[in-house]
Specification:
Length: about 150
């Protein structure tokens, strides 16, 4: 008989993570409390420097969290960790153009979807009038500002 994992076992597996191949070290996560504790003190310093709302987004998006943290770590790894200034990194699964379902748009990312849904219609129309690259750049700049981060387009 195949062994099935209990909900408790599944939750325990979700609590630990990491991706050494991408430069992100292990962490312990408590999703219910929105807390991540990084094993590496430099990663912990980065995490603690982030805006609370951005941490709440990243804690539920492992791909984006991994990409953001590893890029931020590389940005500041040669500098002083006492003044951490990370640049915003858009989520890797961002859908441009977004798909439209009725009156809502799906960018493939909950934070972007929520941000866009809360814009007034004229601002949504203005953003959607851009080509995909410009739309992505504009949204990234606005999301960066929302989370207190800088953003430089590639």
């Amino acid at each position: 008989m195949a062994e099935t994992k209990s909900e408790e076992d599944k939750k325990e597996e979700e609590k630990k993570g990491g991706d050494r191949d991408n430069g992100v070290l292990e962490y312990t996560i408590d999703v219910d409390k929105n807390i991540i504790t990084w094993e590496d003190s430099k990663y912990q310093s980065i995490w603690e420097s982030l805006h609370r709302d951005f941490k709440n987004v990243l804690i539920h998006d492992p791909k984006w969290r991994t990409e953001f943290m590893s890029k931020c770590f590389r940005q500041i790894s040669d500098s002083d960790f006492s003044s951490i200034k990370c640049e915003f990194v858009p989520p890797p699964d961002l859908k441009l153009p977004p798909t439209k379902d009725g009156m809502s748009y799906d960018f493939g990312n909950k934070a972007y979807n929520n941000y866009f849904a809360n814009l007034d219609e004229s601002n949504r129309d203005k953003l959607l009038s851009h080509d995909n690259e410009a739309l992505g750049e504009q949204l990234a700049a606005e999301m960066a500002k929302l989370y207190g981060l800088s953003y430089k387009s590639d």
